[in-house]
Every structure is written in C-alpha cells, then in structure tokens.
Prior knowledge:
Layout: H1 17-26, H2 35-45, E1 66-71, E2 77-83, E3 102-109, H3 135-151, E4 160-164, H4 178-199, E5 206-210, H5 212-219, H6 234-259, E6 264-265, H7 268-277, H8 287-313, H9 315-320
Parallel strand pairs: 1-4, 3-6, 4-5
Antiparallel strand pairs: 1-2, 2-3
Amino acid sequence: MALRPPPSLAWLTSLKATQLKALATAIGLPSSGTKPVLTARLLASLPVSKLYRPDHAPNDTNPTPRILSIDMGIRNLAYCQLALPLRWPAAANHAPRSALPIVEAWDRIAVAPRPSPAPSSDAPSTAPAKEPFDPTTYAPHALSLLSSLVLSAAPSPPTTILIERQRFRSLGSSSVQEWTLRVNMFEAMLHAVLHTMRTHHLWEGAVYAVEPGRVQAFWLADGDKKSGGVEGGGAVKGARKAKQGKEEKIRLVGRWLEGGGVVALEGRAEETGRGFVRRGKGGVGKKDDLADCLVQGMAWVRWEENRRRIVEEGMGFVEGLG
Length: 322
C-alpha cells in the first residue's frame, strides 16, 4: 500500500523524478529509485528531525544540539564537535557569528601507537614488531576514545554522533584489504560501545552511520562522478577520483575558514583552523581527514536546515533549486 502523504507534503506527488532526486540529495537521502520509491523515502524522512533533543528537557532548558562527527581511521582518526547556537538556522550565508555553527573541537589522533622494534638478545633490530589487531586489544581503545569524546566532552557531550561508514572494498579493487577490515572492526566497536552507553543511561543521544558518497555528492558539483566509489573504471581510475575528491574538500574547508560566514571556531579548534589554512611549515598534516570530519558534520547541519525549509516552504524550495 502506498504511503498517504500528509496534507502539508501532498505537493511531493506532483514533482518530476529529477526534482525528487534533487530534494533527496538536499537532505542526504539516497537519490536512486523510481518516483514512487523517492516519494515514499521523502515522505518518511521529511517530518523527522535527525538532530537529537531529549524529550524530557523543558523548552527553556533544552540543551544546545551538539554534533560529534568522526572520520574513521586507526593511524589518522579525525573528529570535530559542532554546537548549533540558539539563533540557528541562519537566514542567509555570512550570518552574524552568533548564528553560525560553532566548531568547539577539531583534531586528528592515532587510536593506537605504532609498535616499537622488537628487541633481540643477539643483535639490535630495527624490524618493527608485529602489530596486534584483535578484539581484545582494540576494545579498550574504543572505550577510551568514546569516554574522552562523549562522557568527558567539554563543554558538554554531543547529542548526535556521526560515524563515517566504511566500505569493504575501495577504489574499485576486487580484493578486501586487511587494513580495511581492521578499520571496519573498530567502527563496529564504536557503535557497540555507544549502544552500551545509551542502554545503561551513561549517555543520551543518537548515533548515525554516514555514507561518504552522499556527503560528497551534496557539497561537490557532480559529486556522484567524483566520489571515488567502487563502480566503474577499476582501482587506478578510482584512486584518481578519490584524490580529486579529497583535494576538493580541502579547498572547500579552506574557503570556509578564510572567507568566514559558514562556521565559527573556538578554543583549540582555532589553532587547528590556523594550521589548516597555513601552507608549508607550520601547517597541519593529513588535511584530508580533518576536512572529511568537518564536511560530514556540516553536511548534517545543512541537511537538517534543508529538511525544515522544505517542510515550511514547499514548492518554493523546489523552485529555488533551479
């Protein structure tokens, strides 16, 4: 049975497939499928906010929504925490600072240190020790990371957590790399720890797995062709696309920081921001990971803003898409 649209969204049934796809991309939904599939997807998602707010909090003490965005990795895990001020969403670009999302934390860390060379009784050895990567070893890493980022977060814990969804295959390769499996296992551990925290009332919030391709398709022109996905062209072509996508996201974040009017940085995040825009000596390393977590978090913010605008403006929002 087809989903009957509420009166406020009945206009969706009159849209063309291209318009439905554009709306799906605007709020971070999959944009594939027939008109009935796309319509049903939008009808199910548009009425529901994906910014968690505790139901029990009175309106006058409703906590500021905070988004923790995690770009997965072992050697290079990047994260940022965004706070949405009371005046959000801003009415237009280059809004006053008080109406901008605030980056309270932004950093890149190694989940586990590199193993030291294995000692030898006969002669000094420079060969690295075999790195353990088993559930028993990495479970404490998952708990320690989330205890720091969630339970001990300053000034307040996040209310919504976004974890980059990993792929089993990357860059068109037919094989599954061992390192990919390692990161996938750690990703699953993070979800398990967060589920345990919620079940035992140690933390209250929502957790979402975010597809990188949808983030890239939202921010970058022709994003579906630049996502570096597994379809089409094999590993060499995929690697070229992935590199291009990383460079474009780095430039995008650089424009946000240098031009202003998109995000505001506070505390230690300001130091990361200065290092991000600095070239050469004094600049931060692995800018692509830092860019990924911020772009992912800001995509979630814009998706929520677009969702609200679509519900409020209806066809006016569609006409603004051009």
